Sequence to fold (383 residues):
Amino acid sequence: MTNSARSIAHFDLDAFFVNVECLKDSKLKGRPILIGGKSDRAVVASCSYEARRFGIHSAMPMKLARRLCPQATVISGDMESYSKYSRLVTDIIRDTVPRFEKSSIDEFYVDLTGMDKFFGTVQYSAELRRKITKETGLPISNGMAVNKLVSKVATDEAKPNGQLQIPFGNERNFLAPLPVEKLPMVGEKTGALLKQMGVRTIKTLSEIPVQMLQNLLGKNGSELWRRANGIDETPVVPYQEQKSISTESTFESDTIDIRFLQAQLVKMTEKIGFELRQQNKLTGCITVKIRYADFNTVSKQSVVTYTSADHLLLEKVRELFDKLYDRRLLVRLVGVRFSHLVPGNYQINLFEDSNETIKLYQAMDSLSNRFGRYMIMRASGLI
Fold:
């Protein structure tokens, strides 16, 4: 399919965590709000547009954010509520459009290709925005373009609570005057490197020979050049919430050793928690399975706030196992499954986690990548 035949809409809930809190307490509207842990070692998970005017942004140390805006209201955060509203918006989109991709807890791509035969896609997107806001109370912005890349940048330019269409053929002209940091894939380090070279706009970046960018950034150089020129053939991947990651263990001999069973659950949870983070996904549902010596199999599941953090996953796995296990019977097998998967990086249970906790997860995963999954693990998984 050629770009000219595509019509891709991107939807992004504005300051999602903050606006959910404003729904719960209307007195917060219009005030500088910081979502995150209240200790000096915590970081900012999200902040209101009023707080952003003070130079505050996500992942900033909370201590610095409070120094920049002493009058800000700090809220610990409520992932249960955020997950609930994310699912509500997902259900509305699922019931309205033919194909969509949930790219994070608060972002969606919708493929409206071919729908102009029946009605205007811009009008259709506007009506979907109104429907989401009417049924949830949450503001949402929308960009529409020939591909996912340009539609996402258009959404960022339309914020807050706006809509922007980039007509086919205008992709490069739209991107050209924007700062290079506006381009997805340009992080802090790449942005600093480009600025050292005098590259401040996407137009300048697009004019650099692709070979030069490859020499500078390796294989990412050619992809960056394509993006700077508005080229992106990435498809909208249909959202299927029921995809899962699971593991189970059948024992050499049936057992009622609680410590052994709990150690196995820790090892399995860490194993698939690592896989979850490697795939940049979060789980919204955890299931624990037990098969007894008589082959009777039972399971219990729980819908949880989206996460990929081992300490949160382990807490729920232990809770489910305690509710499920009948200590009078020998156990043959235990299993753990994570389902309701959505794309997304580790949600720094940003509300209480410190920079140290975040760095610890990153270091553990880095060691597992280099030396193998079982080179580093919790002591409770050793028995």
